[in-house]
Design a protein that fits this description.
alpha/beta, seven-stranded mixed β-sheet, two-stranded parallel ribbon, 40% helix, globular, binds zinc ion
């Protein structure tokens, strides 16, 4: 949750900063108004009236904090070898959007049975995308530091056979505000299994995540994006509400797209994997650099998927 709150705050601060700047400008024109710019820390001498009224001082402090946070982010971007700092995501919507299955991705009786929708994009007009990271093979501490430092939100989908040799790594991730979700126990091709077999894979992973991390996921991603009606029935039976897949995939050196236009779109869910040098000639931070350069150059911010569900 920490990441969201930070994002919410920075979103709000951006708006408030404009208000603060306007207030300060007005203040500068009015007489008897101290535009000290000291962050509101100066104390009046005993017996004197404070030079700044408390609301103006608060706004001033606010603007100062925002400036400091921006400077911190610019420095962080430099440290992680990004040409530009990440763009700040807008505040999450007050009313969550309605998530319908993507056209052509429904199963029989989807609506009648109230099955979790499979979708690739969140309906929004804002220039935001959502980063999701799958499987759990690579456990790179540098990656955790980078994401916290740059305040880039993401959502993890774990498969137990890869996560289980170091549950502690994902615990650290969870503490940093990342939600851990279901990607089955053993990463099978689910449509090849019976309903019962699928239930064991999906509901078994619900139990593992609840036991290890104290929270039962509401998001489930079928391995390879392959599923049938039994998959969604099984997922629903053990508490899954949504089955997000993806519209583009990031590798260490490129992106692959689902759409013919070979582009990203507002609300797109982006897939990548916990992979290291043995898989793709680079590290997790290298992959994130590829991703962040791409989205920032296109004017997109990275938002948190759970804020829209
Ligand atoms: Zn996978």
């Amino acid at each position: 949750m920490q990441l969201v709150r930070q994002n919410e705050k920075s979103g709000r601060r951006q708006t408030s900063y404009r208000v603060a700047a306007a207030a300060l400008a007005a203040c500068a024109l009015a007489s008897g108004c101290a535009a000290g710019g000291d962050g509101g820390s100066a104390q009046p001498a005993p017996g004197q009236q404070p030079l700044q009224a408390p609301p103006a001082r608060a706004l001033d402090a606010y603007a100062g904090k925002l400036k400091a946070e921006r400077a911190r982010l610019v420095a962080a971007a430099k440290r992680w070898d990004l040409a530009k700092p990440p763009l700040t995501a807008p505040e999450p919507p007050a009313r969550k959007p309605h998530i319908a299955p993507r056209k052509g991705f429904e199963v029989d009786d989807q609506r009648e049975l109230g099955l979790p929708p499979v979708f690739t994009t969140i309906p929004t007009k804002q220039k935001i995308v959502f980063l999701t990271i799958d499987d759990g093979a690579e456990k790179d501490p540098e990656f955790l530091r980078m994401m916290s430092d740059l305040k880039i939100p993401y959502t993890a989908f774990l498969s137990d056979y890869l996560a289980k040799d170091d549950y502690g790594y994902f615990k650290k991730m969870q503490r940093a505000g990342v939600s851990l979700n279901n990607h089955t126990l053993h990463h099978p091709y689910l449509p090849g299994l019976s309903y019962e077999g699928q239930k064991r894979e999906i509901c078994g992973m619900q139990d593992v995540i609840e036991k290890r991390y104290g929270k039962r996921p509401t998001l489930f991603r079928p391995p390879y994006g392959n599923y049938n009606q039994a998959t969604l029935k099984a997922a629903k039976s053990c508490g899954v509400k949504y089955a997000p897949i993806w519209n583009a995939e990031v590798f260490v050196d490129r992106l692959d797209y689902r759409e013919w236009d070979r582009n990203i779109h507002p609300g797109d869910i982006i897939l990548t994997h916990f992979r290291g040098r043995e898989d793709w000639k680079g590290t997790m931070p290298d992959m994130i650099r590829t991703f962040m350069k791409y989205v920032t150059d296109k004017g997109y911010a990275v938002a948190r998927l759970e804020d829209y569900l």
